[in-house]
Amino acid sequence: MASVNRHVLPGFSLALGYTVFYLSVLVLIPILALFLKAASLSFDEFVAAVWTQRARAAYLLTFGAAFAAAFINLFLGLLLAWVLSRYSFFGKKFIDSLIDLPLALPTAVAGLVFASLYVQKGWLGQYLVPLGIYGAYSRFAIVLVLVFVGLPFVVRTVQPVLEDLDPECEEAAASLGATRWQTFLDVILPSITPALITGFALAFARGIGEYGSVVFVSGNMPYKTEIAPILIVARLEEFAYGEATAIAVVLLVISFAMLVVINLLERWTMRHER
Amino acid sequence: MSISIKNVSKRFGDYVALDNVSLEVPDGALLGLLGPSGSGKTTLLRIIAGLELADSGSVLHEGEDISDYSARDRKVGFVFQHYALFRHMTVAENIGYALKVRKAPKAQIRERVDELLKLIRLEGLQARYPGQLSGGQRQRVALARALAAKPRLLLLDEPFGALDAKVRQELRQWLRRLHEEIHVTSIFVTHDQEEAFEVADRVAVMNQARIEQIGTPAEVYDHPATPFVYQFLGNVNLFHGRIHKGRLRLGEAEVRVAEHAAVHDSPAVAYVRPHEIKVRALPDGVPTIAAIVRHVNAAGPVVHVELERKDDGGRFAVELSKEESRELALEPSTQVFVELKNVRVFAEDYSI
Description:
The complex is a heterodimer. Chain A is mainly α. Chain A has 13 helices and no strands. In chain A, helix 12 packs antiparallel against helix 13 (about 240-270). The longest helix of chain A has about 35 residues, at about 55-85. The radius of gyration of chain A is 23 Å and the shape is globular. Chain B contains 9 helices and 20 strands. In chain B, the strands form 4 sheets. Chain B has a 6-stranded mixed beta sheet with strand order 6-7-8-3-9-10, with helices on both faces. In chain B, strands 13-12-11-14-20 form a 5-stranded antiparallel beta sheet, with no helix packed on it. Chain B has a 5-stranded antiparallel beta sheet with strand order 15-19-16-17-18. Chain B has helices spanning about 40-50, 90-100, 105-120, 135-145, 165-180, 195-200, 215-220, 225-230, 320-330, and strands at about 5-10, 15-25, 30-35, 55-60, 65, 75-80, 155, 185-190, 200-205, 210-215, 235-245, 245-250, 255, 265-270, 275-280, 290-295, 305-310, 315-320, 335-340, 345. Chain B is of the alpha+beta class. In chain B, helix 3 crosses helix 4 (about 135-145). Chain B has 2 domains: about 5-230, P-loop containing nucleotide triphosphate hydrolases (Rossmann fold, 3-Layer(aba) Sandwich); about 235-345, CATH 2.40.50.100. The interface between A and B is medium-sized, with 20 and 32 residues.
């Protein structure tokens, strides 16, 4: 009677097999190829390719802008998720479906729209540029477009958690004498922190990888508004494939390390669930 | 602190949750709000706590009208059926929360938490998270949390409803003892009459948005004010008949009911509890109803017998001691005569 099946759903081995297969074909093998290509350079060539002043400026901008945009999305996304989960108002469904738009819209379109809005003669640019706010061809422009691209992630991770919160916990806090602000800080916020961190990590990762929209809004000036993915493309256009993959490897390693740290942080906030 | 509820009404849309309810709870009392689900008892509790606002009427603490106070300012401890503990806080943080939000010094919070941990007999578990406790332990933590800021009033909403039978039994006795110790005026909601009788010193029976009767458990059980209370508190048999000048005719038998002496020939229902019926082998010259034994269940401390009236075929239940049952040698199809020993008659217009 060794074949008694105790699982509700069949096929653990089958499911795991497919998982490993897809993961290999879609993720692991391309990454391996990336590393192999980068390994065609000697160590000195590698360092020379990835640690130029231009490359360092690009890394800093890539991670800095992605972080800033994700950070802004943390607050903006929480606000939107709060409004959508707590209140009912006219047009709520419409706003709810707008949230997903940045996921569906080709980001190049978003980049073009943002650029044309914020250039000196654009609808918004004509008022903002005289005030010294450059919403196109600047670092600020990159952050702006990354906020747009990363918006759905925080909203969509936090919203279901907010909807599932036990209203009795808030009532308990109120009857124990907590003000609304104390209730939010002590009861609601800790419950949604893991979801906030997940949303932040997703928005951050999306920002690091974003290319299509940034190309149109940044102006791609080396040392100033050139992000690392654009630098990679620049190297590719020079047929310097080894250098290009070397920069990609650095990007990959830093991203991975940051996501690991964020994951650890998330796990720490969930320590009471053990 | 005494509490009085005056003419409180509450509607949710078309649904009437409370219909002009008034209730007095003296200082130090432990009152049980008893009723079936949907009778409005939880709504009443939530209005007292300030978690819900009454449409009309007022709530008074020691004569002070607190109807417009928010939950935060009412100094009321509330215990929820599903505990509503803060999952990301330890037991000690949960219990001390009411003091923390009032910015009490840390040493004072720790002292009070230790005191309460001792009271709920969970010393040593202060560093645990609620997820690591059993249901009974969680409910005790919730109770300690509600008591931490020394509330004027303790409210418990079906506090043992989510627990299994044995733990529930233990916690009932424990709550009773706890109340004797700390003597805070308490109101708890339950749909379990046994629980209300065991824990409370006064019981208010609610039905369909109204309070039907208030009294000690013995008063309410022995002298139910309405047919609903009679039926809700334990098993009861209904005998339909006609009442005329203080005499109720039930088929061939006649029962004297002094309180309805003025009623002239009206349909009426007699309520008799199964243990208040005497079964005889022969009429013995007392007014009896002839019946046939239909089923005998002798498992348990008492014998449950199902009888069928010979005149109109109505079925009713009787509880006998084992001895009585043995003497009568009851078996299905035996004919017996029953004497109704404690009859409560409600005229028919008291429709249920």
